[in-house]
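Title: Prediction job returns without error message
Component: structure pipeline
Severity: low
Priority: P3
Assignee: unassigned

Description:
Job completed but the reporter wants confirmation the result is attached to the right record. Sequence as submitted:
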Amino acid sequence: MFDTDAEAPEQDIDDRLEGNGLVRVNNESTYASVLTGTSYGDVDVVFDVTSAEPPLNCEGWDEVVEVSLYFPAEGPLVGDPLSDDLDEVPLLGDAEEYQWWRFRVHARGRDAAAAAGDIYADEGDTVLEEHLVQIWAAPRTAEIRHRLTDQAGRRSRTADTDKYAETKAAETDHAALPPTPDQYKHLTPQHTELNADTPDGTDSPA
């Protein structure tokens, strides 16, 4: 979920371990990545835009997290920003006016989807992972973690000692590299396939 020209959240391993394991938000609150258990394929997502905060109901959901995001009422784009397969979720109010919105993100089935591998409904597969995103206008407030119970989220919030040391070393090496020359900054890395944002590091926002 992102605004036009917004930059994806950049997080090192320490940020990830402190995160909620479901939603990552950039510093400007204009881009949110939702982590899925499905590596590649289909996930069922429902957006519910309401005029006021809906009652909280965590029953039947594995993960429920609330974050604040800053969008115009014309709404965020959703999907893979590296492809043309994008949709828009219209919000309520003046289409061009930016304001704060509350996003309550629910998820279930991430563990089952991760175990099943690639899932494509048009090939007869049963979609195992579901998300519900409730949205309403509200002042900016801190993140709330209502429920964190699945293994997909737990893996995102934990790392074994060896893995942590390797990742920190790689981050240090990357930080020591010379900056990219200005004449190359406009170039976009090429990706062959990127369909999901997963706890194992494959990033693609919903």
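Comment from assignee: result matches the submitted record. The longest strand covers residues 98-108.
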